[in-house]
Design goal:
The protein is an alpha+beta fold. The protein is built from 5 helices and 8 strands. Strands 1-3-2-8-5-7-6-4 form an 8-stranded antiparallel beta barrel.
Length: 234
Amino acid sequence: MEKVIYVVWRDAATTVDTFSQQLREVLAPKLKALGVKSLRINVADSAVAAATNIWQKHSKPPVEAIVQVWLDSAIALRRAPIDAAIAAVSARHAAYLVTESVPILNTLHPARHGHRTEGFAQIALFPHLVSITHEQFLQLWQESHTTVAIETQSNFEYVQNCVVRALTPGAPEIHAIIEEGFPTAAMTDPQVFFDAKGDQARFDHNLKLMMESVGRFIDMGRIDVAPTSQYPMF
């Protein structure tokens, strides 16, 4: 079993809610018929419109959606029909083979197939700093930063996708795709986001720890962060 994440961009003439509907109601059944084993769709639809303070937009146009699929094989020949189905509902896409690690399993708001998961899912896509090796990046990110991310935030789900390689020509260089589930209130209240509701000192402390930690390995000038609705389809 292999996991592939497609970064998908909508046509500017299509509204984000229409795009979300197309991904869930048009694309999802096609992918199921093509033999995809499991599918999760993340899209920045109107349900997360309030989270304007969370966006970090490096890519142009900005990243608004990812499609996460689990396949028996991600080799080009087997993947071609899936690529074509995704191309049919998007203006552009880039595919990445990833390995998945789940430091926090979502047991607070369990996902239901075909339904929007409670709260929102923040996705982040980034390359690591050029000043560190890939081995150093993995050590800093997964072995050191993981604890910081858990202890300083109100995340109830934490998924780390390490990019093995890009699968489509011209795919932007990224080394990691992260998904974190947060409570709805975290969309508009930074103190809730950083697990410090009503406690300015704790908020300042957690924010400082987080920024110091990510600054060790993330190229902050080339990061994309977006609030999304999470739809586990099957």
